[in-house]
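F.,

This is the one I mentioned.
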């Protein structure tokens, strides 16, 4: 017979180990074992508990989902009210907030504030007794909330058991939210199942917490961050108290930061706003709290909000407005993009009057009509988009959006390729819209870098017929340019100079500039390195292309078709005749790689552009890096070198000049 004691011990050791890994993962954000190892431990515990159900305890990590749904939500009266925060929207309001605090505290010294993300989720209260999670509730009206213990228990970042040093009684306040990835997956599944998607992660989190059946909540992958506690835990400051919570195993946001005075608050706000769209969860502002508890007490409360804290809101990323009409824009590759023309609305910090509707599938999925009231979203620098119509406000004159059957620019037929959502005008550069887009791409900084040939000029040059093919750029005259509306003599001369200057390029940049579908900067450089000459690319077969690492089958097909096309070859020849040239790429097949394992950093002006030197060094097997470290073989410095020289000197890295570089390139 197996010794029962041993099994009890094994189960308890496994639980402890899992709990420790949860702490590492959720609280310290520093997992120490791979997921697969964790899963193994978890499975082992499940199996042992299955064989010995009498040993299951409520705090076991396997006991997050209660077997039976609850029949209703019970009321829960909070031990201390759950307050809300006053909002601020401008720097002036922050200045006033700070000034008021200083007046009340009669304090002219530096004041310390904690700045925390304002999580866009739902406030909850969670109660631990003797280190065990026993009850959790919603905020409700601040005095009475709903008991949602069964659902909160399913949230992996809320520990069921605290670490040893936690006090006997502990009540934590914090926010439950739905990470963006989880939200997107949930909505994708809703659409597949013909269910209505949630408007945003906050609503999805709210909907998930209001489930009677915890097995549904468990599938929603909610998360939790603590932002307060009903006790000061013998600490003098909020930040100290939060650190203590962390040591008990409670998850605290690593973005929380201490700052001084209004200046520090504003700086932190800007930094947090810049981070907003890179975070894996939504935040809608920054919460500022006076850090010192005795100051907090002196400041007190007004109505239902503390005077020592404030929510400094970010500009809303969503707003409601009317969709007046829909236009179809033709892109570089002929794809038609439906663009909603909106009644101008202030959103994400700017006035928006156009927003993308992406494609026909999205229009159908969202069921957007012309004249609808719609939710518009502008997050960070992302192109504004129409999120959804407000169906409750749909007017009688709402019209279905009809996709054109002919290109709105050149009148050619529109086709939809198999397996593709996009509708396209297939006439290529015959279509003026596609020519304009192609030239815009061709002249862009990372392509041929023709400074001064901005979007408006490109459109004018194409509309006026001065540019019918890309190579016409190189035959423009001063006289022609001066005929363009608002083109001044100086700008025209500068432009011609920039055009001339751009003729000297690299093969990689030239390939990228041609705008082959699926070929970005990296792909273009790979092709250049591999084939070395344009003539080699013209005759490359699909098999050869597929064999190149980093070029997938779809890209290979586009490359093959583009460069085999006689018209495209003609255009490329004409561009080369017009003077486009690049340094010859040495043949590495007969070339050993004498600089393999060496790393160089280039700074200052040398007798060739840095890009060219880089390409040559790389062909010889060297790596070229942009920053100096102890691993750098040498810094190659030309005239007016940057601070990299000092860094090299400090690290004892060799410094080469033009002469040494010439020698290197001959190796
Ligand atoms: S402190 C006494 N800190 O914002 C103040 N609240 O309008 C208690 N919230 O209901 C709140 N992130 O749900 C605090 N870092 C944070 C927060 C935060 C989000 C929510 C919370 C509260 C609402 C206040």
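My design for it:
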């Amino acid at each position: 017979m197996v010794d029962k004691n041993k099994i009890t011990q094994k189960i308890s050791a496994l639980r402890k180990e899992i709990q420790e890994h949860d702490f590492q993962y959720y609280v310290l954000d520093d997992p120490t074992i791979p997921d697969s190892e964790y899963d193994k431990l978890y499975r082992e515990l499940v199996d042992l508990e299955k064989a010995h159900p009498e040993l299951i305890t409520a705090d076991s990590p396997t006991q997050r989902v209660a077997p039976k749904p609850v029949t209703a939500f019970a009321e829960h009266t909070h031990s201390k009210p759950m307050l809300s925060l006053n909002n601020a929207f401008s720097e002036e309001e922050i200045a006033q907030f700070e000034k008021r605090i200083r007046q009340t505290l009669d304090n002219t010294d530096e004041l310390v504030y904690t700045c925390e993300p304002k999580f866009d989720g739902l406030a909850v209260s969670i109660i631990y007794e003797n280190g065990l999670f026993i009850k959790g509730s919603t905020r409700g009206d601040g005095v009475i909330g709903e008991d949602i213990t069964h659902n909160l228990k399913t949230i992996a970042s809320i520990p069921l058991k605290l670490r040893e040093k936690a006090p006997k009684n502990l009540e934590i306040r914090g926010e439950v939210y739905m990470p963006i990835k989880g939200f997107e997956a949930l909505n994708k599944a809703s659409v597949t199942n013909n269910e209505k998607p949630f408007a945003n992660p906050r609503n999805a989190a709210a909907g998930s917490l209001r489930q009677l059946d915890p097995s549904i909540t468990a599938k929603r992958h909610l998360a939790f961050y603590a932002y307060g506690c009903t006790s000061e835990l013998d600490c003098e400051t909020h930040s100290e108290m939060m650190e203590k919570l962390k040591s008990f195993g409670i998850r605290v946001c690593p973005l929380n930061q201490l700052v001084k005075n209004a200046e520090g608050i504003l700086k932190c706000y800007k930094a947090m706003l810049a981070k907003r769209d890179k975070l894996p969860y939504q935040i809608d502002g920054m919460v500022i709290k006076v850090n010192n508890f005795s100051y907090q007490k002196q400041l007190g409360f007004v109505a239902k909000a503390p005077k020592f804290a404030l929510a400094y809101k970010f500009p809303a990323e969503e707003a409601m407005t009317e969709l007046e009409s829909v236009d179809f824009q033709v892109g570089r590759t002929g794809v038609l993009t439906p663009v909603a023309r909106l009644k101008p609305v202030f959103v994400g910090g700017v006035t928006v009057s156009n927003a993308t509707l992406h494609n026909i599938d999205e229009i159908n999925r969202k069921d957007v009509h012309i004249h609808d009231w719609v939710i518009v979203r502008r997050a960070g620098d992302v192109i504004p988009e129409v999120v959804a119509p407000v169906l409750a406000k749909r007017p009688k004159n709402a019209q279905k959006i009809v996709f054109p059957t002919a290109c709105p620019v050149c009148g050619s037929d529109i086709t939809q390729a198999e397996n593709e959502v996009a509708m396209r005008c297939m006439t290529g550069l015959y279509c003026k819209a596609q020519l304009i887009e192609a030239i815009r791409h061709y002249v862009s900084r990372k392509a041929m870098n023709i400074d001064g040939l901005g979007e408006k000029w490109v459109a004018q040059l194409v509309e006026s017929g001065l540019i019918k093919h890309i190579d016409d750029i190189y035959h423009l005259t001063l006289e022609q340019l001066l005929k363009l509306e608002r083109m001044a003599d100086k700008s025209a001369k500068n432009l011609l100079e920039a055009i001339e200057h751009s003729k000297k390029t690299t093969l990689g940049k030239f390939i990228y500039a041609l705008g082959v579908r699926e070929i970005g900067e990296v792909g273009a450089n790979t092709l250049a390195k591999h084939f070395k000459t344009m003539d080699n690319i013209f005759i490359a077969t699909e098999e050869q292309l597929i064999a190149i690492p980093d070029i997938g089958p779809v890209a290979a097909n586009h490359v093959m078709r583009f460069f085999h096309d006689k018209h495209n070859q003609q255009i490329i020849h004409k561009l080369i005749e017009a003077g486009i040239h690049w340094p010859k790429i040495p043949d590495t097949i007969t070339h050993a790689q004498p600089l393999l394992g060496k790393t160089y950093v280039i700074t200052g002006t040398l007798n060739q552009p840095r890009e060219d030197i880089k390409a040559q060094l790389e062909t010889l097997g060297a790596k070229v890096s942009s920053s100096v470290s102890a691993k750098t073989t040498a810094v190659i410095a030309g005239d007016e070198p940057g601070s990299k020289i000092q860094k090299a000197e400090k690290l004892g890295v060799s410094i080469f000049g033009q002469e040494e570089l010439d020698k290197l390139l001959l190796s």
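Residues 87-313 form a domain with the D-amino Acid Aminotransferase; Chain A, domain 1 fold (CATH 3.30.470.30).

Talk soon.
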